[in-house]
Amino acid sequence: MSKAKPQVGIIMGSQSDWETMRHAAEVLAELQVPFETRVVSAHRTPKRLVEYATGAKGRGLSVIIAGAGGAAHLPGMAASMTTLPVLGVPVESRTLKGVDSLYSIVQMPGGVPVGTLAIGKAGAINAGLLAASILALGDNALAARLEAWRARQTEAVAELPVDPDR
Ligand code: RP5
């Protein structure tokens, strides 16, 4: 990524979450939104989480994307320490297929919002797009790039289905 100051922070509970969270990073890179990535675990590195979440706004971040699996407390705990928008991505867990992650992230108590996305890759992609949409409210050039991204997606959808075996 370029040396521009990061506007979006992508955090994840474990290195194992990167396979999912890299899709958020790829979307932001395509849209030329500067971002940073960090492994920050609510359970294994709680002090790192406090430092990250309390310092995020002051360091110039505008949105946090937080992905975690299982007992996925990272997005909610991050949201408890900042008023930046926090987008939560439930990572698909091995045992419960991410339903545990989803339930852990989505049922926040009133007063501490986390915008929860779909489980897995789709959620990570959409977290990247949603972060870009939020930033685009104050950035016309980014808004135009986002419109173009969506137009390319529409153009890429064939009208007729093709037989993959042929
Ligand atoms: C969570 O536990 C992480 O977000 C990850 O999804 C899950 C498993 O972590 P590892 O055991 O793979 O490090 O904290």
Automatic annotation (TrEMBL):
Transmembrane segments: none
Top-level EC class: isomerase
One Pfam family here: AIRC
Binding-site residues for substrate, renumbered to this chain: S14, D17, R44
Pathway of action: Purine metabolism; IMP biosynthesis via de novo pathway; 5-amino-1-(5-phospho-D-ribosyl)imidazole-4-carboxylate from 5-amino-1-(5-phospho-D-ribosyl)imidazole (N5-CAIR route): step 2/2
Highest rank taxon of the organism: Bacteria
Family (UniProt): Belongs to the AIR carboxylase family. Class I subfamily.
Reactions it catalyzes: 5-carboxyamino-1-(5-phospho-D-ribosyl)imidazole + H(+) = 5-amino-1-(5-phospho-D-ribosyl)imidazole-4-carboxylate
Ranges for domain PurE: 6-157
Keyword terms: Isomerase, Purine biosynthesis
Its job: Catalyzes the conversion of N5-carboxyaminoimidazole ribonucleotide (N5-CAIR) to 4-carboxy-5-aminoimidazole ribonucleotide (CAIR).
Protein name per its UniProtKB record: N5-carboxyaminoimidazole ribonucleotide mutase
Gene: purE
One of the GO BP terms on file: 'de novo' IMP biosynthetic process
Organism in which the protein naturally occurs: Magnetospirillum moscoviense
EC number: 5.4.99.18
Single GO molecular function: 5-(carboxyamino)imidazole ribonucleotide mutase activity
